[in-house]
Design a protein that fits this description.
By secondary structure, this protein is α/β, with parallel strands linked by helices. It has a single domain, classed as TIM Barrel (Alpha-Beta Barrel), CATH 3.20.20. It is about 35% helix and about 15% strand. The strands form 2 sheets. It has a 5-stranded parallel β-sheet with strand order 2-3-4-5-6. Strands 1-9-8-7 form a 4-stranded parallel β-sheet. Helix 3 packs parallel to helix 5 and helix 8 packs across helix 9.
Length: about 260
């Protein structure tokens, strides 16, 4: 089974007004949310960096406000992953320096859209983006694909050769989407839970991620990843079903389920 000290769970973002009264105490203001979040989780995916480039000032403040052993996966900016613009990489990495310097930068997450198919051109672009974002510090990288064409043994082998972690997404059973059983391309396991509601996937906005995972679904997921437990140094699980704090509740439930399964051995 997954060892407790290897599992790190959290959510994809933390600053959501509809979490107030459901996960955050009633009356919690935006500038108070992070302080509450770190009481429950030891890592977070920073998603605001997808929409705007991070600044050293902002991330220095987050490093200062987080506990000593807290870590950040930072989502690559949309210019890199969605607009095929490599020019922002240097500025993006510069913004991460305070996290890296504090030893709290877990890595950079590159999440590509469904329109990013496995073609020769896109494989070349992917390699270039990896080179851009690894930077002089050899920053750990993880990549999530959305299009099913990347579900190929050559993808897994290529990522292993480059020491890039493959993200295994949990998404609806839609043929065009990327799906994979738990797999490792580095010593790091990484999964992101989005939704299993096919009807809402193309609805747009927050409706896409409006899904509450059952304990049975989370237990099955824990058992699947447990098959790789001996080969993992760490397993990151981030919940992106952020509608009305479902992500936070599911993340805490998953952690409890893993603990229970380990105790049953």
């Amino acid at each position: 089974m997954i060892e407790k000290n290897k599992l790190v769970v959290g959510t994809s973002g933390y600053s959501f007004t509809d979490w107030v009264g459901e996960f955050y105490p009633a009356g919690t203001k935006r500038d108070q949310m992070f302080a509450h979040y770190v009481e429950h989780f030891s890592a977070v995916e920073l998603n605001f960096t997808y929409y705007r480039l991070p600044t050293a000032r902002t991330l220095a403040a987050m490093a200062e406000k987080s506990p000593e052993n807290f870590g950040f996966w930072v989502k690559a900016n949309q210019a890199t992953t969605h607009k095929r613009d490599r020019s922002v990489a240097e500025k993006f990495l510069a913004g991460l320096e305070p996290l890296a310097g504090a030893g709290k930068l877990l890595g950079v997450l590159l999440q590509f859209p469904q329109s990013f198919h496995r073609t020769i051109e896109n494989r070349k672009y992917l390699a270039a983006a990896f080179d851009d974002l690894s930077g002089p510090r050899s920053t750990p990288l993880a990549v999530e694909f959305r299009h099913h064409s990347w579900a190929d043994a050559a993808t897994v082998e290529g990522l292993r050769q480059r020491n890039v972690t493959l993200v295994v997404p949990d998404a609806p059973a839609i043929e065009a989407l990327y799906h994979s059983p738990p797999v490792l391309t580095t010593a790091t396991g990484y999964f992101r839970l989005h939704s299993r509601n096919a009807d809402n996937w193309y609805a747009g906005g927050a409706d896409r991620y409006d899904y509450d995972y059952s304990d049975a679904e989370l237990t099955d997921l824990a058992r699947q990843w447990s098959e790789l437990a001996d080969r993992m140094d760490r397993l990151f699980g981030f919940f992106n079903n952020c509608h009305h704090a479902q992500a936070a509740r599911n993340a805490e439930s998953f952690r409890a389920i893993v603990d229970r399964l380990a105790g049953d051995e």
